Amino acid sequence: MSEQMIIEVEDLTVSFDGFKAVDALNLYFEKNACHVIIGPNGAGKTTVLDLICGRTKATGGSVKFKNKELLSMREDQIVLAGVGRKFQTPSVYEDLTVSENLELSYPKGHSVFGALIFRRDDPVQTRIQEIAETIFLEDLLDEKAAFLSHGQKQWLEIGMLLIQDPELLMLDEPVAGMSVAERKKTAELLNRIIQDRSVIVIEHDMGFVADIATRVTVLHQGKTLSEGSMERVQNDPKVVEVYLGH
Amino acid sequence: MTRSSFMTRKELIGFLILAAVIFLLLPAMLDSFRLNLFGKYLTYAFVAVGLALCWGAGGILSLGQGVFFGLGGYCMAMFLKLEASTPENTAIQSTPGIPDFMDWNQLTELPVWWQPFYSLPLALLAVLAVPVVFAFIIGFAMFTRRVGGVYFAIITQAFAAILTILIIGQQGYTGGVNGITDLRTLLGWDIRTDEAKTTLYFVNGVLLFAVLLIAQYVRKSKLGRLLIAMRDQEDRVRFSGYNVANFKIFIFCLGAAFAGIGGAMFTLQVGFMSPTLVGIVPSIEMVIFCAVGGRLSILGAVYGALLVNWAKTSFSEAFPELWLLGLGGLFIAVVMFFPNGLAGVWSEQIEPRLTKLSKRSDTATPKRAAERAPAE
Ligand SMILES: Nc1ncnc2c1ncn2[C@@H]1O[C@H](COP(=O)(O)OP(=O)(O)OP(=O)(O)O)[C@@H](O)[C@H]1O
Ligand SMILES: [Mg+2]
């Protein structure tokens, strides 16, 4: 079974001063699938991603990425192992230009010495250009990230992940705070980039979820409430009661 | 990295202007006593340039750079002191051949850890290595534990205090509160003469430019951009696959190496090294040099060190008690009104006006010439 799984979360628990934000959680994410996590505010969705990528230390349990235990690894090691993460609030380097933002995420020169001798040669340049086109920012390459709109920052952060070329892509509310037009473009962008990739997305927008999800997990109070296809989950009375009902 | 990405035209002009100031203007304007004084100010510029990288670019504020300045300076002073303490020079001591302060403190033998400082190559190596090793230990202990910001600043300050206390307390080994004084020659070359001091001023200038070029390279490398990224979004850098602690340790060690060179040049030019240059007050002053010059600019840091020190000398000659107050006021004023210091004032206020002016005179000249032509 673990052959087809990219992430296996078992018995994962984290408690903040006694409050269990994630409680003995078991989750299995398949390779090359788009797995969406939904759930009410405070359900522990972001915390699950934080635990996988090492931002929050688990109290107990295990997270295996391709059969490798992640919980004992440092954040940067997890990234280099192939896990990319987009944060809920866009986090880009405001004082650097769009192309510099992308350059820093290019998967080369990650040691101190490597960074000192790193050159922005043709392959790097081409890749930056390619990604910039994918994320609709090809005309803003020399613009400081601080001057981008909220939506453009979200795209830039997605671009920073794409240039890393991770095996597993984790996106936390990628369309939150976007205008309708931006939302549509993002949906199109995400639909393109989730092909042939393992993706975990957290999202509230049900239309959007229906559009991209291969499989949906509903989280409630740190536990799985329901799991399965979008259709199944939508018709689950428990889910309707705590989440979709209002 | 291509040539142009190493230094823009504007930056090149900045470097050339500074070179002209240090190598032509100051030596032409000042007598050898004053030139030596400016040479001393420039030794602090080494520290300020390091701070521009650590603090300005990387956001790591160290209030203990005096430690590294002092360690570099002491390493140099130990060599010079041993050279000055020949058995002939120290014949009146109860143990001739050891530094005078050791003799006064009833030491009868040179401590083992002083032995390497008989060798100039080893001493020069120590000038760099000792500050770097210290910085590495502090940096490793702090940054891998994710200690940063104000906590880091306070801890570095504590180190400055501890080192001062240690030096003062271990009088027999360090010369205590007086420091290591009465330094005379470097491989037989008398460093107290005016000519020697002038030569050392130029050596200091060359070394400063070497340091500036290294700093420029680092700033323009990907590592330089990573520093800025870390300052603004440390977590994002981590989640782009970088071990943030390693980068912080590196830049902190580089700053320490720069400071160590500055300290050694201080010892050579001023002729002594003492704990008053190591402690909390000088460490904070060094941050002020950097802030006044503009903490984002490595050239600004040099001007900051020059100007504040020059002001200090002129001001404290007249009103010695008021200097610290004045310095504090200056720091507050800079932080509140000119957060980017002199470099910021230059690039935000003066430079745009200059370009506007030169553009206007460009367009104005042909017109005026055309007007004048018929009258002639
Ligand atoms: N570092 C922390 N310390 C204490 N409590 C925390 C911490 N991080 C998260 N929590 C708590 O854990 C719970 C889950 O938070 P989380 O951010 O994972 O929710 P979420 O499902 O992502 O919600 P949203 O939809 O609002 O983003 C919340 O009650 C939150 O207050
Ligand atoms: Mg969340």
Structure description:
The complex is a heterodimer of chains A (246) and B (376). Chain A is of the alpha/beta class and 246 residues long. Chain A has helices at 45-52, 75-81, 98-105, 112-117, 122-134, 150-164, 180-193, 206-212, 230-234, 237-244; strands at residues 5-16, 19-30, 34-38, 60-65, 68-69, 83-86, 168-172, 198-202, 215-220, 223-228. Chain A has a single domain (5-244), classed as Rossmann fold (3-Layer(aba) Sandwich). Chain A contains ten helices and ten strands. In chain A, helix 3 (98-105) packs across helix 5 (122-134), helix 3 packs parallel to helix 6 and helix 5 crosses helix 6. The relative contact order of chain A is 0.17. The mean pLDDT of chain A is 91. Chain B is an all-alpha fold and 376 residues long. Chain B has two domains: 16-305, no CATH class; 343-376. Helix content of chain B is 74%, strand content 1%. In chain B, helix 13 crosses helix 15. Chain B is globular and about 75 Å long. The model of chain B is unreliable at 364-376 (pLDDT under 50). Classes of the chains: A alpha/beta (246), B mainly alpha (376). The interface between A and B is medium-sized, with 33 and 26 residues. Adenosine-5'-triphosphate (ATP) is lined by residues 16, 21, 39, 41-47, 88 of chain A.
What topology emerges from the helices and strands here?
The complex is a heterodimer of chains A (246) and B (376).
Chain A: E1 5-16, E2 19-30, E3 34-38, H1 45-52, E4 60-65, E5 68-69, H2 75-81, E6 83-86, H3 98-105, H4 112-117, H5 122-134, H6 150-164, E7 168-172, H7 180-193, E8 198-202, H8 206-212, E9 215-220, E10 223-228, H9 230-234, H10 237-244
Parallel strand pairs in A: 3-8, 3-9, 6-7, 7-8
Antiparallel strand pairs in A: 1-2, 1-4, 4-5, 9-10
Helix pairs in contact in A: 3-5, 3-6, 5-6
Chain B: H1 3-6, H2 9-29, H3 32-57, H4 65-84, H5 100-104, H6 120-143, H7 149-169, H8 171-174, E1 185-186, E2 189-190, H9 194-220, H10 222-232, H11 234-238, H12 244-270, H13 280-293, H14 298-318, H15 323-337, H16 341-375
Antiparallel strand pairs in B: 1-2
Helix pairs in contact in B: 2-9, 3-9, 3-10, 3-12, 3-13, 3-14, 4-6, 4-12, 6-12, 9-10, 9-12, 13-14, 13-15, 13-16
